[in-house]
Amino acid sequence: MSYSRKQKRMVSRDPARRPRLPLGLRKRAVPWEHQRSTWRDANPGLIGAALSRAQARPSGNWYVVGASRHLNSTAPWGRTITGREIVVWRDARGTPVAGPGQCPHLGAPLKDSPVRCGTLVCHWHGLALSGAPTAGWEPLPVHDDGVLIWVRLDAVDDAQLPLDAPVLPPRPRLDRSLVSVYTTAGACETEDIVANRLDPWHGAWFHPYSFVDLTVVSAPQRDCADEDDAFVVDVSFKVAGRVVVPVRATFTAPEPRTVVMHITHGEGEGSVVETHATPLGTDAQGRPRTAVVEAVIATSDRPGFRVAQLLRPLAGPLMNHTAGRLWRDDMAYAERRRLLRSTGRFPG
């Protein structure tokens, strides 16, 4: 089968066809102020409707605590989720255990207690917690998905039906992926983090150092079915000068506190970026605090990717650096949104 010159150009632009090299070259660099404005497309009502649909989905009362690989067998984690002290550690088999972070005896902070042979031993009076109910201390359901640790807090929302496991998006095989988890926190609520991620139109304007040539190919209608509730975006990741990596990505919200970006075409097809928002409580000024736990699970079938996997200790910090730069901006977006909502000045 032969192609005309026009057909060849169309095929070369098809995002489903990957070039031999992952990089592309922009014909010309468009100055930031000359790119197409997106404010008309980024309709507050449309974004708000997508947020409302996400908030209506079941979470099963599961909250992300942190990166699985960071929880070792020698020291516990201490976390505050929805104002509740939580402690998490690994037992002698390496299985995570979770429960209240306050010792039931006299209130010692269990996050400061050591783990000995899988047992958490309170450093005030030696109460030993193996993960079973002890002296008024009751364990909490906990889940390790290989990337993240989750804890289930049924007391937070008794209207939610508890689920046996968190609502997880499809992921590439972990043994064939590079995994990085970045965590930060800010003065906002979970809905502000999710709303930020359900606004893909801000990408090339707000993050010009990372994204160029962003086009929202399709956005969900306000009364769409679940299977159509996705934002599809063509975007190029900026490398240097006119050198870019063009991809197509789909943004979905599988549960109220999670937004997932799937790379569906282009370099890294099958890779995902999961953005999870965990409510922490309030700060000394009474402002809500929310943690962002963002997991990047990158994969590729290119031969060179195997080399990148071997360089995991170097790739991880680089991926975290990139996420940190983006979230410095996106947290400012989320905090501004929360401030405007709290003062009745938020549009829409």
Would you mind describing this structure in some detail?
- The structure is a single chain.
- This protein has 348 residues and is α+β, with helices and mostly antiparallel strands.
- It has two domains: 23-57 and 171-342, Alpha-D-Glucose-1,6-Bisphosphate, Chain A, domain 4, CATH 3.30.530.20; 62-152, Rieske Iron-sulfur Protein.
- 21% of the residues lie in helices and 32% in strands.
- The chain is built from six helices and 17 strands.
- Strands 1, 11, 12, 13, 14, 15, 16 and 17 form an eight-stranded antiparallel sheet that branches.
- α3 (190-197) crosses α6 (312-342).
- It is globular.
- The model is unreliable at 1-16 (pLDDT under 50).
Describe the largest sheet: 8 strands, antiparallel
CATH fold node name of the largest domain: Alpha-D-Glucose-1,6-Bisphosphate, Chain A, domain 4
Alpha-beta content class:
alpha+beta
Helical stretch count? 6
CATH second-level architecture of the largest domain:
2-Layer Sandwich
| DSSP strand content | 25-35%
How many angstroms separate the termini?
A: 53 Å
Q: What number of structural domains do the residues give? A: 2
Q: What is the N-to-C succession of helices and strands?
A: HEHEEEEEEEEEEHHEEEEEEHH
Share of helical residues: 10-25%
**Highest-level CATH class of the largest domain:** Alpha Beta
